[in-house]
Specification:
GO biological process, one term: steroid biosynthetic process
Low-confidence stretches: 3-13
Cofactor: Mg(2+)
Order of helices and strands: EHEEHHEEEEHHEEEHHE
Mean pLDDT: 93
CATH superfamily: Nucleoside Triphosphate Pyrophosphohydrolase
EC number: 5.3.3.2
Pathway: Isoprenoid biosynthesis; dimethylallyl diphosphate biosynthesis; dimethylallyl diphosphate from isopentenyl diphosphate: step 1/1
Radius of gyration: 17 Å
Family: Belongs to the IPP isomerase type 1 family.
Number of strands: 11
Distance between the termini: 30 Å
CATH topology: Nucleoside Triphosphate Pyrophosphohydrolase
CATH architecture: Alpha-Beta Complex
Oligomer: single chain
Number of domains: 1
């Protein structure tokens, strides 16, 4: 694993966010896209409010994406989330996971182009991957999953999650406030890592686990023709 060192800072005027890393607190001010269970946009809401379990338990649901980036060898870029993260700190997960924002470019739904723009933005912010290395037409939007998962007693996720695949050789310069470590893995290496994680209590994000168990390996086996597997009309309830 390539490891990135990070510096902790603290405090916020919001009691919910007191004691957390200052940059992660700032990012909680971003405005996500609230959706209904059919993924129709219904309004804006702060990232903080979208991730509070008290709101999730009342049905608050937002749009998200999960990127799976493979190199030319067919290896998956895996990351371990930074310990500074407010939700699922230190968890192993897919290449990049985040949310489109309630702004014009990322609200655009035709061809999931708004989600793809958000994925470009976050790949650069988290992993230092420049947008010209991951052009919009390189992303394959495969399907959506709807899932809910607590991170702890206070925070969690409730998302309609767009799954995006792409195969590109890129330059990674990880942001240590976002990414604790990263590496490329073959299928066998990922299976071993996840088996070891389960045996040793190493944390794995719930959406990554769901996608691995439901879709990942059969799509990975068809990586060169994965666009033909696209199913944009379906929302899988997991």
């Amino acid at each position: 694993m390539v490891t990135a060192e990070a510096t902790m800072t603290t405090s916020s005027g919001d009691d919910h966010l007191a004691g957390y890393d200052a940059e992660q607190v700032r990012l909680m001010e971003e405005v996500c896209i609230l959706v209904d269970e059919d993924d129709r946009a219904v309004g804006p809401e702060s990232k903080k409010n979208c991730h509070l379990m008290e709101n999730i338990n009342k049905g608050m649901l937002h749009r998200a994406f999960s990127v799976f980036l493979f190199n030319s060898k067919g290896e998956l870029l895996l990351q371990q989330r930074a310990d500074e993260k407010i939700t699922f700190p230190g968890h192993y997960t897919n290449t990049c996971c985040s949310h489109p924002l309630y702004i014009a470019g990322e609200l655009e739904e035709a061809g999931a182009v708004g989600v793809k723009r958000a994925a470009q933005r976050k790949l650069e912010q988290e992993l230092g991957i420049k947008p010209d290395e991951v052009p919009l037409d390189a992303f394959n939007y495969l399907t959506r999953i709807h899932y809910k998962a607590p991170s702890d007693g206070k925070w969690g996720e409730h998302e309609v999650d767009y799954i995006l695949f792409l195969q590109r050789d890129v330059n990674v310069n990880a942001n240590p406030n976002e990414v604790k470590s990263y590496r490329y893995l073959s299928q066998d290496e990922l299976k071993r890592l996840l088996s070891d994680a389960e045996a040793n209590g190493m944390p794995v994000t719930p959406w990554f686990k769901l996608i691995v168990e439901t879709f990942l390996y059969k799509w990975w086996d068809q990586l060169s023709t994965v666009a033909s597997l696209s199913d944009p009309a379906t929302i899988h309830r997991l």
